[in-house]
Amino acid sequence: MEHKNKFAADAIRELQQSLDAVAPYQATELSKQQAVCALSPQIAALRAKGYSWTAVAAMLSEHGVPVSVAALRTYLRRAREEAASENPRTATRRSRDARAVAHPAEPPIVPSSSEDRAAMPASKPQAPGKSPASTVTAPSSAPTAAPRREQEPRSSTFVVRRDTDDI
User: Fold this and answer.
1) CB-based burial, 35-62: b 16+ in 10 Å, e otherwise
2) For residue 114, what pLDDT band results from cuts at 50, 70 and 90?
3) How do residues 5-21 score in pLDDT, each as one tens digit?
4) DSSP state of 137
5) CA 148 from chain center: how many Å?
6) Residue 6's pLDDT is what?
7) Is residue 50 predicted with pLDDT exceeding 90?
8) How far apart are CA 80 and CA 125, in angstroms?
9) Can you say whether the dihedral through the CA atoms of 36, 39, 43, 46 is positive or negative?
């Protein structure tokens, strides 16, 4: 008994060759988004020549692609975003982006009074005969991060009122 899910290897090879020989697909109709995307180099050239968005939209509308200025700009922005997402990111760009996202370490908080400084544990062992005040460095001019305040839960502004028709 022959299985329906089995195919002859020769038949598959022939199918592979015939599929490889098929010409690339060419769409016969484009959506407005696709039309603007296809025309984006020409639109950019018109903008570089000084034409306004309104003038470019009017030219497209006159030639059978009716589009508003807002839609034209949206379609072009989408086309740029798609093109940018298709380009692989380089290692340099990835590391630069990672540095921008990484949160810098918070600077240490330096006590303001001399008694608080004396109470702070020293990071280095004190040399005999030196006072703790001589080893404390002055605060740097770098901005310090303000301590974060905990958020209080928000109270609702929704007020329930009785329906006066039911009374």
Assistant:
1) bbbebeeebeebeeeeeebeebbeebee
2) low
3) 888 999 999 999 999 99
4) P
5) 26
6) 87
7) yes
8) 59
9) negative
